[in-house]
Specification:
Rossmann fold, five-stranded parallel beta sheet, alpha/beta, eight-stranded mixed beta sheet
Length: 912
């Protein structure tokens, strides 16, 4: 249709061209387009409707008539380029300004803008040509992301969103349904390849695997289609993602219908999500449940009536209308070129059309006006051009977009000026929607997600809206799907399974399988101390330090906190032993205080005995600090308390033992010995020995003080223990104690036969032996135990050694004081001393006799000598309470010397 301003249109009125081998034996003829596209014809009608509506408007482009030149691309690049060359050639002739040489009454004005094309591959070829002449091109269905490159496609614009968002949306749907094993199929053109490339990147980011990645075309040979279907049929993936147009995917669908492969779920890109080629009842067994992405539907008032008014007589100038009529009613119009072909036998027989058929009486995709998506995009594209022209028409000089803010002349404008105006377009359409192009000349929109159902009424395909995809929403809120509306193949409402491996249950994680994709895995149970509380966990989460994993590793529970508590049986037993030790020691001290003036108490050095008993009370009490929850102050107190108490105790024993030894080894007591035996010096020695231990503790507490420590190393238990701060310091503390014990043991062993204090030195020897056995055993036990048992081991060692010292040193004395008072006398002490003196004299005599005998033997003497048998017999148990006398007897050889010693106790004398 002619007009003052001409718009171009490119629409796929046919799905393809007939394949023909060109041998170039004759002049090549134009290829024939086949398979009429009813939806494509409706898109054409939308452009015609929009132009007629604009021409009838009094507010938009008044007194200016828009015309159009519309071509059929046949969904191929070659046909589209033929039409584009026509647009370009006309613009080139106009630019030459040949009016003065040629007065053509039928002159056709230049095409200032082109609406189309549909397929991205076709639009890419057209855009390459139109961009050379800056002729604006507005596509209504080409969504390839490559077309957003303005450096290459300078004049390309579109009213459909780019596939950049669609690939992301499809990946989000797969992630939403928790699929990780899919098949990807793309058309082998500029639409499918970039779309599936972007889709692959999105899948990699989500750790989803593509099992097969295939290209397809409507021009594939049968063997190629069959080979592709073989690979799909043998794949374990159940979801097929397709970036292709309807004509490209149709051969694949046909072959799958022939093989009755019905266990696949299709994810359709916008190019075929509502294609009438695929949405056929005979294909529903295979494609039912398909999830498709379509554009938001628009409303075109009056378009339905316009579609119904189509008539071959009314549109005689439009050959597409005539063919549409013939294909709709399966007839031929008079003078139709297709009638002649039919007569030549190329087509089956059809009757003639009457041109009076009722278009509303037939089912055709042409009249499907309920969801106008691509048609609405065509409508918006035409109105965008019209508003750009209106901006040029209403431009005020000085406020224009061109040099020096000038305006273009609507009567002499060129295509590049329209392109400039379109890039700055911003208007509100009749539906109240704002229309503008972004920096890439794309138009933003959102996707509607549809699900293919089988209509209960007639078994046809019904597109049910089940969700939306909002491109510019925040991540996580972009996708919205109503699962209750979803219907999968075979009327199933359960989401199909399309994973390489079965889901890993909670408590397990996905383990890698060698030479397999990451989506193929084996389920491995979480390690102890780790858990997973959801399916398909990639890793097991480590439990917090205060928690441990349950038996099935699905959650963590708080660890039990353990320490040597007062309430547990072991703690109670240790506490009882410690308290009992304190009470026994206090009892012994009470006995010693009560009988402090008796010989046995005096002979035991009662002042040192009091200090020794007090230190033993401290030893027993220090074991109580090891019971209960360790705190910082208890950790810092217990080792010094134990160490200082034991050193004080052993120092007293050492001084007592050393005193007895010095007394009996001194041949003639001197003033020096008496000074050494003085009480003040004994206390000084005890103080000095103890002071060394105190300094060790001070240095320890200053440099590395012990502290409370929660040990999380044990699986299900948190042991609250003491971190000693420095093991070396603890070694010094125990080592110094053992050193004093060794010295004490040496002196006690050396004086074990002395009579002082009723063989006290022997008991001290046993006491030190017990001490060594306990603490030598303590070292390996301490380092081989853990948790609360460390405190228990040390408490046991303290109690055992404390009881050993208390029993060995004091129990015998208490027994004599309480139950054998006859032995607690001065005579008994003196008697034992005298016995020791005779024992020493006898040893000396025996030694002398032995020496004489050796000399006699050396000179051959035959004289008899007295027997070398010397015996000292004393009856220490023969206690005469009346006389209080003992009669030791000394025997030499065959004779017996009776030595009678009588001691009269002086009233004022006492044994020191």
């Amino acid at each position: 249709m002619t007009g003052d301003i001409l718009l171009g249109g490119l629409f796929p009125i046919h799905f393809g061209i007939s394949s023909k081998d060109e041998n170039l034996a004759a002049r090549p003829e134009s290829t024939k387009c086949v398979r009429f596209n009813f939806r494509g014809f409706r898109w054409l009608q939308a452009m015609v409707f929009a132009i007629e509506e604009i021409n009838n408007s009094s507010s938009l482009l008044p007194n200016i008539t828009l015309g159009y030149r519309i071509f059929d691309t046949c969904n191929t690049v070659s046909k589209a380029l033929e039409a584009t060359l026509s647009f370009v050639a006309q613009n080139k002739i106009d630019s030459l300004n040949l009016d003065e040489f040629c007065n053509c009454t039928d002159h056709i004005p230049a095409t200032i803008a082109v609406v189309g094309a549909a397929g991205s591959a076709v639009s890419t070829a057209v855009a390459n040509l139109l961009s050379l002449f800056y002729i604006p091109q507005i596509s209504y269905a080409s969504s390839s992301r490559l077309l957003s490159n303005k450096n290459q496609y300078k004049s390309f614009m579109r009213t459909i969103p780019t596939d950049e968002h669609q690939a992301t949306a499809m990946a989000d749907v797969i992630e939403y349904f928790q699929w990780n094993w899919v098949i990807a199929v793309a058309s082998d053109d500029d639409y499918g390849r970039p779309g599936i490339e972007k889709f692959e990147k999105e899948m990699e980011e989500r750790d989803i695997c593509i099992h097969l990645n295939e290209l397809i075309s409507q021009y594939f040979e049968d063997r190629e289609i069959k080979a592709l279907v073989d690979r799909i049929e043998n794949s374990t993936a159940k979801v097929i993602v397709v970036f292709a147009s309807g004509p490209d995917i149709e051969p694949l669908i046909k072959e799958m219908v022939r093989r009755n492969i019905t266990d696949r779920i299709w994810l359709a890109s916008e190019a075929w999500a509502s294609s009438s080629l695929i949405a056929k009842p005979e294909y529903l067994d295979v494609v039912e449940g398909t999830i498709g992405f379509v554009l938001k539907a628009g409303n075109i008032p009056g378009f339905r009536e316009f579609l119904q008014q189509v008539q071959p007589k009314r549109g005689s100038h439009n050959e597409f209308v005539r063919e549409f009529w013939e294909e709709t009613f399966n007839c031929y119009l008079e003078d139709s070129p297709r009638l002649q072909e039919s007569e030549n036998g190329s087509d089956s027989f059809r009757p003639l059309c009457t041109s009076e058929e009722d278009i509303t009486s037939v089912e055709t995709p042409y009249l499907d006006h309920t969801h106008l998506r691509i048609s609405y995009n065509v409508y918006v594209a035409v109105y965008s051009i019209a508003h750009a022209l209106q901006d040029i028409l209403s431009c005020t000089p000085g406020h224009g977009l061109f040099a020096n803010n000038s305006c273009a002349d609507i009567k002499k404008m060129e295509a590049w000026q329209v392109l400039k105006q379109l890039r700055h377009l911003n208007y509100t359409n009749s539906m109240g929607e704002k229309v503008h192009f972004d920096e890439n000349a794309d138009m933003e929109a959102n996707y509607t997600i549809i699900n293919w159902h089988r209509s209960a009424e007639d078994g046809s395909v019904a597109f049910r809206e089940v969700g939306y995809y909002h491109m510019h929403a925040r991540r996580g809120a972009k996708l919205l799907i109503d699962n209750t509306k979803m219907m999968w193949n075979a009327y199933s409402s359960e989401v199909p399974f399309s994973n390489c491996s079965e889901d890993c249950e909670p408590g397990t994680r996905k383990g890698i399988i060698d030479s397999m994709p990451t989506c193929c895995f084996e389920c491995t149970e979480c390690s102890d101390g780790e858990y997973s509380d959801h399916k398909d966990a990639s890793i097991c989460t480590k439990c917090p330090n205060n928690s441990w994993s349950s038996g099935n590793h699905t959650f963590c529970f708080l660890k039990e906190i353990e320490f040597l508590a007062w309430s547990e049986p072991f703690g109670i037993a240790l506490a009882i032993c410690a308290v009992l030790g304190v009470l026994l020691t206090a009892f012994v001290m009470g006995v010693f205080v009560r009988f402090r003036n008796t010989p046995i108490v005096k002979a035991s050095n009662r002042e040192l005995s009091y200090v020794l008993l007090l230190s033993l009370i401290c030893c027993f009490s220090s074991s109580l600090i090891f019971i209960g929850e360790p705190q910082d102050w208890t950790c810092r107190l217990r080792q010094p308390a134990f160490g200082i108490s034991f050193v004080l105790c052993i120092s007293c024993i050492l001084v007592k033992t050393n005193r007895v030894l010095l007394v009996f080894e001194a041949k003639i007591p001197t003033s020096i010995h008496r000074k050494w035996w003085g009480l003040n010096l004994q206390f000084l020695l005890v103080f000095l020995c103890t002071f060394v231990q105190v300094m060790i503790c001070v240095v320890w507490l200053y440099n590395a003080p012990p502290s409370s420590y929660r040990n999380h190393d044990i699986d299900e238990i948190i042991f609250i223990t003491c971190n000693e701060g420095s093991v070396m310091a603890l070694g010094f503390l125990i080592g110094y104690t053992c050193l004093l014990a060794a010295i004490c043991f040496f002196f006690a062993f050396k004086s074990r036969k002395l009579p002082e204090n009723f063989t006290e030195a022997k008991f001290i020897t046993f006491c030190m032996l017990i001490f060594f056995i306990v603490w030598i055993s303590f070292i390996p036990a301490y380092f081989s135990t853990y948790g609360k048992f460390v405190s228990a081991v040390e408490a046991i060692a303290i109690l055992a050694s404390s009881y050993g010292m208390l029993a060995c040193i004091f129990f015998n004395k208490v027994y004599i004081i309480l139950f054998k008072p006859c032995r607690n006398t001065i005579e008994e002490v003196r008697c034992s001393t005298a016995a020791h003196a005779f024992r020493v004299a006898a040893k000396a005599t025996l030694k002398h006799s032995t020496t004489v005998r050796k000399k006699s033997n050396s000179i051959g003497s035959t004289a008899s000598t007295p027997s070398s048998s010397i015996s000292l017999k004393t009856n220490s148990n023969d206690c005469d309470s009346a006389s209080g006398r003992h009669r030791p007897r000394v025997s030499f050889g065959s004779g017996t010397v009776m030595l009678s010693l009588s001691f009269e106790e002086s009233r004022r004398s006492s044994l020191m």
